[in-house]
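Action item from last week, closing it out:
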Amino acid sequence: MQNKINQRQQLQRSSTFRVLTVITGALLAAVGLELFLMPHGLVVGGITGLSALFAHTTEMQLGLFLFLFNLPFIFMSRKQVNLRFALYTVLGLTCLTIASLALHRFPAVISDPLPAAMAGGICLGVGIGISVRFGGVNKQASDQGYSLLSGGPPKSTEVVIMILNCAILLFAGTLFGWEQAMYSIIAYLLAFEGVRISLRGLSHSRTAWITSSRCLDIQQAIATSLNREAAIAEGSGQDGEVSTLFCLTNRMEEEHLRALVLQCDSESQIVFRSATKDHRQTRLHE
């Protein structure tokens, strides 16, 4: 009983940490946009750049366009993510929008556009990156939503997004001048690099090895909630018999997978390993 209480408290602390980190990342991204980039007419790629262009041309606040333009990506990925992940995504987007609206009336922190581009790009990229890394958004959601804020698209749409980013930067050059466009490119590259570094190793495949007496229930829960297949490695998986279950996952899904397993069987054990390492071990045993 005490073990179950400790596990529940650990999950609650982890969830609280993730919520605070998502909020912190969104605030950092908003600071980069409103206190460094927007006052100098600097535009990055992706949905953020598109929102900035609309904000400059319509004289409406950036936060409104950030929310409106990113909202469709949440609906597009609704079938690929569960409710917990979707709530983290909505929380991050809402905090980014509110913080952007609140910071809009403040002047630029730096008057020189070059250091402003560097500082703003880093703040934007790192802010989005840590929100995705610790917020629990899965790979597909981050590809379709958050990473598009800084121009980090899924590979299947790299050409389309590259063309969109070039069009945004070209339009920004005609609107604000080509010198500003060069600063915008610097901000864009730093934002992209900030996201890439923050998410390094996050989507690498992992294997989860689960030892439990309720493997069939866990197998069904994983299939329903994470839309993943899990296989019985040892034993039959019948209720009451201790068996071993394994499935492929990634670091972004580890917490949710652990919570699913503990909900089905609080006495179960779960171990995460590198998929590459497990593959090498399998080859050695052949």
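Closing note: The chain is about 65% helix and 10% strand.
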